[in-house]
Design brief:
By secondary structure, this protein is of the alpha/beta class. The chain has helices at about 65-75, 115-120, 135-145, 165-175, 195-210, 265-270; strands at about 1-5, 15-20, 30-35, 40-50, 55-60, 80-85, 90, 100, 180-185, 210-215, 230-235, 235-240. Helix 3 packs across helix 4 (about 165-175).
């Protein structure tokens, strides 16, 4: 990064002078990331960078590996390759309160918790263990519920809420952290148009505040005008700019003589999502689903 200074050092000629300063590290950086689970290649050689303040969509057809890649970036599944968050190698990263993670709603198992209690769980990483919630914690939870239009639903059992309301609660949980990086997995799945528009408004306000947002999406939908750029996956690989994930057909769908019956399609082509196989045991990062 080239910076200009109006204060010349002694001996320098008058006027402004140029200085080189290192650019800020990427918020998320991955190099040649592979995920192979139970012998099945799911993500293959994925490399990407996401910078502060960007709103980035990770797109791909069903089974392209996009959710698995997102989980690998957060250390939630085993992987090979290099990943860093906020300039820190993933293995050394500890400041999980800087990340507001919203998993897919179908993976959430909450039986007794109220909506407010689910949102409040997002504040656990901001204080020391075993300390009670502070006034700031309670205010953050209230503000997050109001942000998603559920200020009057805090006492409702989470499981009694509609699918759209549950999604809003999980978004509020991420908002309550005050995180610098939002990571949302399929936030539009199974929600009505009103909820979609509400979530688009939440994302727009986060963008105005300079929050980095990464979303796994099947379609841009209501987020289209907010997205700065898209990262497209096909068969577990990051595609070059300009690639349309709707045009992907493995590249051999019309090849004569190509017969899927003579090989294991998953083993050869990869790119299948983690929910298609038995989940492995992973290291706790503080970002597992609410349960």
């Amino acid at each position: 990064m080239l910076l200009m200074s109006d204060d010349p050092k002694p001996g320098d000629p008058g006027g402004a002078r140029a200085e080189w300063a290192p650019a800020a590290p990427a918020v998320v950086e991955a190099s040649f990331v592979d995920v192979v689970l139970n012998g099945i290649p799911i993500v293959r050689g994925a490399s990407l960078e996401i910078h502060a303040g960007e709103v980035v969509a990770i797109l791909g057809n069903n089974g392209s590996g996009k959710t698995t890649l997102m989980r690998a970036l957060l250390g939630l599944v085993p992987h090979h390759g290099q990943i860093s968050l906020f300039g820190t190698p993933l293995a050394d990263f500890r400041r999980w309160s800087r990340i507001g993670y919203v998993p897919q709603r179908g993976g959430i198992l909450v039986q007794q918790a109220t909506a407010r209690e689910v949102v409040a769980s997002g504040r656990l990483g901001t204080r020391r263990p075993f300390l009670p919630a502070s006034i700031a914690d309670r205010r953050a939870v209230t503000a997050a519920l109001e942000e998603v239009g559920l200020g009057d639903r805090g006492r409702y059992p989470f499981v009694r809420l509609s699918g759209g309301q549950q999604q809003r609660v999980l978004i509020a949980r991420a908002l309550a952290t005050g995180a610098d990086l939002m990571v949302w997995d399929e936030p539009l799945a199974g929600v009505d148009r009103n909820t979609q528009e509400l979530l688009a408004g939440v994302a727009a306000r986060l963008k105005e505040r300079g929050t980095t947002i990464v979303m796994v999406l099947h379609e841009l939908g209501c987020f289209r005008t907010l997205i700065d750029r898209s990262i497209v996956l096909a068969d577990g690989r990051v595609m070059p700019p300009g690639y349309s994930h709707h045009e992907h057909d493995h590249g051999h769908g019309t090849e004569p003589g190509h017969d899927h019956s003579d090989h294991d399609h998953r083993a050869v082509h990869g790119g299948h999502e983690i929910d298609e196989i038995e989940p492995p045991h992973t290291t706790h990062t503080g970002l597992e689903e609410v349960g």
